[in-house]
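Ticket #4471: structure export looks truncated?
Reporter: QA, pipeline team
Priority: medium

Steps to reproduce: submit the single chain below to the structure queue and open the exported record.
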Amino acid sequence: MSRIETIKAHAVRMIASDGFEGMSLRALANACGLQPGSIYAHYRSKQQLLVEVLVEYLEDLLHDWRLQISSRRSPVRQMQAFIEVYVSFQSARRDEQRILQWDRRSLEPDARRQVDSLMDDYRDELVLILRAGHERGLLFVEDVVTSARLFIGLMVGMSVQAELDGVSSGHLTVLLWRCVQGMTGVASVGHPESVRSVTV
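Actual output as written to the record:
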């Protein structure tokens, strides 16, 4: 692991635990076993570090999703994959999801616009699925933009609660798929592996 990766890994753990305002670069340097000046050689400020963490998290999430969508032609299959990719991704990177949820408000205006733009890109991926499903009579959603925004908020909130309650990723996927069925009226066809054995 490079020095920058070490710094970032410690920063993610500290921000997720203590909040952005509760972390100082001096404390971060101590956690990394470095002199404070060594941190400043890589990051001018905490703000720069926070932006990099959140941008990297969202870019990686988008990348993971786009690797999957090309092999899924049906909007229903794409919707299933969208849930599975998100659950798998956030279960591996819970600290960064927590930072996005609680510390995005600490971003300066330009940085927040950059992060919000990536969040919009992710939401737009879901908009495309819902719109295609609606046009083909598979997903019954009228306001696809609002529905996409609400569902992503639901995924985030349920993921956080699932972590607190010790709910497995597989069961969380099932619960989210049931929410999709309730929101869109989609039939129980071709469940993904994680929900195939569950009656929904």
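Status: closed, not a bug. The export was complete when the record was re-opened. Leaving a note from the reviewer for reference: DSSP finds nine helices and no strands in the chain.
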